[in-house]
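Data availability (excerpt). The following record was deposited with the supplementary files.
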Amino acid sequence: MAAAMASAAERAVLEEEFKWLLQEEVHGVLRQLQDILKEASHRFALPVGSTEGPVKQENFMLGTSSADQVKGVLMLQGDALCQADINLKMPRNNQLLHFTFREDKQWKLQQLMDAVMLQLTRARNRLTTPASLTLPEIASSGLTKMFTPALPSDILVNFYINLNKLCLTVYQLHALQPNSTKNFRPTGGSILHNPGAMFECGSQRYEVSHVHKVECVVPWLNDALVFFTVSLQLCQQLKDKISVFSSYWNYRPY
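Predicted structure:
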C-alpha cells in the first residue's frame, strides 16, 4: 500500500513538472528561437517589417594570396548577389577578359535561404558543407548566361558559400577531339574540380585545363552560423527534456 501511494505521489509530481515544461519552458524556448532567428535575418540585411527601409548594398573584394588570374568585386544586397565584376587573365596568352552580370540577372544565396526557417539543420549544413556538383550541372546551372559579354564556351564559373566565405571558381576547358587517344572518364560530383577532370556536355567532351578559385569573407555569414548552432542546441535541449518524460510514461510500471 505504501509503495503504491509513493508511486502515485511520484507520478503526480512528474505530471506537474511535465505540465510546467509544456506550458512554460516550451513557450520560452520558442520565444528565444524567434529572437535568435530574427537576429539571424538581420545579418542577411533582409527587411523583417514594413517599417524598415530599403536593403543596403555591400561590396566585397575577391582575391587569393597565391595567384591573381581572377580578381573582382561582388555586390550583395540582402540574400542576392546583384552584381559581379570579374577580371580573368588567360594563362595561355595573358589576355585579360572582363565580365559583369547582366542587369536583369541576380544570383540568390539559395544554398542557405531556401532552408533557413523550415530546416535549421539543413540551413546550417549548407553553410558548412557546400553542395557537390558535377561539371555538367555547373554548365547547365544558368550562371554562364548571367554575364555580359557572354562567357567564352571554354569557361565555366560557379559560386558557392563555405562557412563565412563567398567563393568563385573559374574553370578553363579544353575541348577533346573525337579522335583523342585519352581515356575518357567522366568526373563525378565535387565541391572543387581539379585540372584533368573530364565531362560531356551535349555531344562535346571537355577536359578541365586550369582552375582558379577566389573568395571574399562575408562577416555576417559567420554570425548566422552561430545563430543556427545556438538554435539547434536549444531545440535539442528541449527535445531531450521531453524525451525524459516520454520514456518515463512509456516504460514506468504502475
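Summary of structural features: Residues 249-254 have pLDDT under 50 and may be disordered.
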